[in-house]
Amino acid sequence: MKIVIAPDSFKESLSALEVANAIEDGFKQVFPDAQYCKVPMADGGEGTVQAMVDATQGQIINLTVTGPLGLPVDAFYGVLGQLYEDGKQTAVIEMAAASGLHLVPVNQRNPLLTTSFGTGELIADALNRGIRHIILGLGGSATNDAGAGMMQALGVTLSNMANEPLPFGGAALAALHHIDVQSCHPAIKECVIEVACDVDNPLCGPRGASAIFGPQKGATTEMIEQLDHALGHFAHTVNQQLYQSVDTHCQLHPGAGAAGGMGFGVMTILNASLKPGVDIVTNSVKLAEYCHNADLVITGEGRIDGQTVFGKTPMGVLHVAKQLNIPVIGISGCLGPNADAILAEGMHAIFAIIPALQPLEQVLSEAQVNLTNTARNIAAMLSLSLVKK
């Protein structure tokens, strides 16, 4: 019997690899001789770097970069242990590692000033190491600068009417007068950049980056209007000077408003493609190859609910397994409202691991034991169907 274990992390409790190990431990109590393939998974959000590094036996690169407030912060990215097409090495970067909201104290959050420069430094470091395939996860950002800081870190010159470099922050984009991409890192032209993006917001307007995501980054009503105007001016300048159909395409492209407009920046300046995060991960770790000839696939995440079917890890794993006609079981910390939506999509069964009402701290600390016990019980139930009558 071949069993593929491909879960996401259980946030604030277990990494994806730790979840996979716990499930394996439980199943081995019933099926000790089965073949187990553990493939830590993610959907492009927090934990993606660690999951993909674990899945491919890669490595973490630690680096000090410029944080959202312009001060040094400790950040990281991953280098996968397996090669991409044409022998390219792959780096996986979470924008939040360098430019995340968690790096800014609540009383200092101000998207007029915060920068994505550190994310650009992570990209530049990967390019300098010879990496030519980059997976960039958007989300959790403290910024609203359309990726301008990232571009500056990569050598792009953004200047005002006095030919002075723009300062950091989303407000500064309103003064943009000239863009010079000639000095951009030369390796960018050789690099394939895939961006994990699971929101469909355009750059500007009522559903744009500033209006929807600005408040959580510290923006007031007045700031939102200022930031939205600045993003619009930035898009117009890119369209005018780089001869791209930004006003009719990229600015309105679903995902352009992701991560404070970073989606727009990577599409226009870095020629990157925006894709659902879980699709990028499943393809990059070659999940379908692991599932070949499998008898069962087990996946999961901290909470399975009605939102799981909209691009979360269990849904991505289910999609791969369904194409190969392999049954799938989901295990989660808890089941939320409309969790059965994923059953309607073809998952065979879902299970929660919490055995009783407990304080959250206890639930998190006992997750590994509860997960192993649940996996063992699922395996025991499966074994009944294998008993010869």
From TrEMBL:
EC number(s) stated in the UniProt entry for this protein: 2.7.1.31
Enzyme category, top tier: transferase
UniProt keyword annotations, A-Z: Kinase, Transferase
InterPro entries: Glyc_kinase_flavodox-like_fold, Glycerate_kinase, Glycerate_kinase_RE-like, Glycerate_kinase_sf
Molecular functions (GO terms): glycerate kinase activity
NCBIfam families assigned to the protein according to its UniProt record, in alphabetical order: glycerate kinase (TIGR00045)
Recorded family membership: Belongs to the glycerate kinase type-1 family.
Protein name (Swiss-Prot/TrEMBL): Glycerate kinase
